[in-house]
Amino acid sequence: VQSYDEGGWRYIDELAKFVEGGMEGTSFIDSVSGIVNRGCHNPPCGTGAVDGGYERSQNFKKVLDTMFAGDPPEVSGSMSPSNLESSTKPSAIIPSSHSPLPPTQTTGDKWYPDYNPIWAKGTCSNSYPAPSGRPHYDSLSECCAKAYGGQVSGACVALLPSSPVESTSIPSSTIPDGSSFLGSLSIEEGTQPTNEVGQSGMKWYPDYNPIWAL
Fold first, then answer.
1. Helix (H) or strand (E) run with residue 204 in it
2. Does the predicted model carry a pTM greater than 0.70?
3. Which alpha helices (H) appear in 148-201, and where do they start and end?
4. Which residues fall within 8 angstroms of residue 18, CB to CB, at 6 or more apart?
5. Are 33 and 57 in contact (CB under 8 A)?
């Protein structure tokens, strides 16, 4: 839509006129609806009249009333076509890894998921101000467990500090009772496993770490 320029009707120019004119009337949204729905700003075009033209204009008015509480701001001079064109051009994104936080951001005692569009790369953050609509947790481990539980990549739990618990991987073949067990069993420092079947066997129990991946 932004690039539309046909028959003396240029979207950027008409948008500027609409805003500087107090966002009144339906001529602008009627023309935009025609472009989106029929391919021209002055329907009916060769393909016919706009579908739901009245409903489109009323919904557009509802959006403006909601955004500005029925009192749109007065705008003058800043909506020139050149300014609008520059503002609609996408800016270059320069990738960076773990760049320092902007001066306006601080860290808090609550954690929230970053909702990375690639779930396998999702992590939790305590940088503030936080985006709206995010659940907050008391710790990084709780955030990872509840927001990214089952994340195979381990991207979130990788941010956790090293655990003081020593983990020992024990192949299933070394378990005396011969039961099948895939994974690892953890023995905390200073504790001994309970021997419940005599000198020749031991029973093990899960530690139920709140972070399942650990």
1. none
2. no
3. none
4. 28
5. yes
pLDDT at 81: 52
- Cβ neighbours for 75, distance < 8 A, ≥ 6 positions apart: 19, 20
Q: How far is CA 9 from CA 14, 77, 155, 167, 172, in A?
A: 7, 20, 50, 70, 75
The 10s digit of each residue's pLDDT in 75-100 is 555 455 555 555 555 555 555 555 55
Dist CA 145 CA 150 (whole Å): 8
Interatomic CA distance for residues 212 and 73, integer angstroms: 52
And the tokens for 199? 């000198």
If you search the block for the tokens 């007065």, which residue do you land on?
A: 74
Q: CB of 206 within 8 A of CB of 180?
A: no
